[in-house]
Design a protein that fits this description.
By secondary structure, the chain is an alpha+beta fold. The protein is built from two helices and three strands, in the order βαββα. The protein has a three-stranded antiparallel β-sheet. A hairpin with a 4-residue loop joins β2 and β3. The longest helix is centred in the middle third of the chain and has 12 residues. It is elongated.
């Protein structure tokens, strides 16, 4: 529901069970609270016209995609 706190160690804040007409308000509230840290917002339809809003910040994205996880081209070498 709106205003839920993310679980410890989660990669993004996930707000579930939002009706369609409340999606703009939910997104606006998240942007207002996280400000410039917002990296990505995803809205997914679930069931019975309810939606899940997932808000990921820049810091959460950086933790999720660490530099060691990026794929390397076959031509790259260390030296």
């Amino acid at each position: 529901m709106p205003g839920e706190e993310p679980a410890p160690g989660s990669s993004a804040e996930i707000i579930e069970g939002i009706p369609l007409y409340l999606i703009p308000k939910t997104i606006a509230d998240q942007i207002r609270s996280k400000r410039d840290a917002v990296f990505q917002i995803q809205v997914e339809r679930k069931f019975h016209h309810r939606y899940t809003v997932r808000v990921e910040t820049i810091g959460e994205h950086a933790r999720r995609v660490s530099p060691g996880d990026s794929p390397r081209d076959e031509g790259d070498s260390d030296g």
